[in-house]
């Protein structure tokens, strides 16, 4: 398998493979760009079908982190790590410490954090063997609430831009995924009077949302064709693709999932259908913003104010897209690239 010939290889600066026989650790760390600063991005543990799938994911995710940091005005680069394995069965303290040693060997060029399949407690274990980890207990902690705030502000911005409504009361939202971010988002939306339709592979979480938020539950495959104002993808990526787009009956798409578009052409497809897409790495930057501020002077109010600026950043993206006559996904890329490609940092 060739890294340099991979479809998702985008001039990545470094791609590291690690294997630890004793713990069974198999991981890949990808560093996309460090022009603005060290690469910061979470570690994801997932039972990938094969090595190619893991590499594709880490290449796409690390690139997205570069764009996310740049558009969020953070002095950081983009990186990501993936561990091949089932977090419910294969994750052990020894494996996490082995991963920490892998991170430490890169000498600060990559800083890790929590992602899918990981927890704040896991970050503490990783911290036993590396200094280069954020999102620790007693630090900024779980960044999910701030990611949810950013998604909430993004939905507000998109609804205002497309529907000219400043409030979310009565707005119908189909939410895919009730993990840490998705569930926190439900709480914010419900508090604003939105009507929720939810799905998740975890039936317990679905039932909880139905009871707490009076949400309507639907099967995972049925979420795409709900007659709603907003579709909020908050699970894994690539749910916006050639097969699902014809099913959409929404006006706006804004959610926390990474890499929501399977291909760049999907952004064009949404634009042609007049569906307003809020680019994922703009929308979900709240968690990155939160862990950036971690340290002895951490101030939750400062973090919240920075995250809430995502609202206005999105409006800038929408206006640029309209001015240039291009999809919003391309407009966001242009804004981010102007920052990390021209910076002298």
What do you see in this structure?
This protein is α/β, with parallel strands linked by helices and 345 residues long. The protein has two domains: 14-67 and 76-126, Leucine Dehydrogenase, chain A, domain 1 (Rossmann fold), CATH 3.40.50.10860; 144-340, NAD(P)-binding Rossmann-like Domain (Rossmann fold, 3-Layer(aba) Sandwich), CATH 3.40.50.720. 41% of the residues lie in helices and 15% in strands. The protein has twelve helices and twelve strands. The strands form two sheets. Strands 1, 2, 3, 4, 5 and 6 form a six-stranded mixed beta sheet that branches. Strand 4, helix 1 and strand 5 (77-84) form a beta-alpha-beta unit. Helix 11 packs across helix 12. The chain is globular, with a radius of gyration of 19 Å. The mean pLDDT is 95.
What characterizes the major β-sheet? 6 strands, mixed
Alpha carbon gyration radius: 19 Å
Give the N-terminus to C-terminus distance in angstroms: 34 Å
Q: Quick one: CATH superfamily of the largest domain?
A: NAD(P)-binding Rossmann-like Domain
SSE pattern: EEEEHEHEHHEHEHEEEHEHHHHH
What structural class results from the helix and strand content? alpha/beta
Strand content: 15-25%
Uncertain ranges: none
Could you name the CATH topology of the largest domain? Rossmann fold
Structurally, the number of domains stands at: 2
What general outline do the C-alpha atoms trace?
A: globular
CATH architecture of the largest domain: 3-Layer(aba) Sandwich
Helix content: 40-55%
């Amino acid at each position: 398998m060739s890294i340099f010939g991979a479809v998702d290889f985008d001039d990545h600066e470094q791609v590291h493979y690690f294997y630890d026989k004793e713990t069974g650790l198999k991981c890949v760390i990808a560093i996309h760009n460090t022009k603005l600063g060290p690469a910061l991005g979470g570690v994801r543990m997932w039972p990938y079908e094969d090595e190619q799938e893991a590499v594709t994911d880490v290449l796409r995710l690390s690139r997205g982190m570069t764009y996310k940091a740049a558009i969020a005005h953070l002095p950081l680069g983009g990186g990501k790590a993936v561990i091949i394995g089932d977090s419910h069965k294969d994750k052990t303290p020894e494996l996490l410490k082995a991963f920490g040693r892998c991170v430490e060997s890169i000498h600060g060029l990559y800083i890790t954090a929590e992602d899918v399949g990981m927890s704040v407690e896991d970050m503490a274990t990783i911290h036993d063997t590396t200094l280069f980890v954020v999102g620790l207990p007693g630090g900024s902690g779980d960044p999910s609430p701030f990611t949810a705030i950013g998604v909430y502000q993004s939905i507000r911005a998109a609804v205002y831009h497309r529907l000219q409504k400043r409030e979310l009361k009565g707005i119908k939202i189909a939410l895919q995924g009730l993990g840490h971010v998705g569930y926190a988002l439900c709480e914010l939306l419900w508090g604003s009077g939105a009507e929720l339709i939810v799905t998740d592979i975890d039936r317990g979480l679905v039932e909880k949302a139905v009871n707490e938020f009076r949400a309507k539950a639907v099967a995972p495959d049925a979420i795409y064709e709900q007659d709603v104002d907003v579709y909020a993808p908050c699970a894994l990526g690539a749910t916006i693709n050639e097969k699902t787009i014809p099913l959409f009956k929404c006006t706006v798409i804004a959610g926390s999932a990474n890499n929501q578009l399977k291909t760049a052409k999907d952004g064009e497809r949404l634009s042609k259908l007049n569906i307003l897409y809020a680019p994922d790495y703009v929308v979900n930057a709240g968690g990155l913003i939160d862990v950036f501020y971690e340290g002895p002077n951490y101030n939750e109010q400062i973090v919240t104010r920075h995250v809430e600026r995502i609202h206005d950043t999105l409006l800038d993206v929408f206006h640029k897209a309209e001015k240039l006559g291009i999809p919003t996904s391309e407009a966001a890329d242009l804004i981010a690239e102007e920052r990390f490609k021209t910076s002298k940092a």
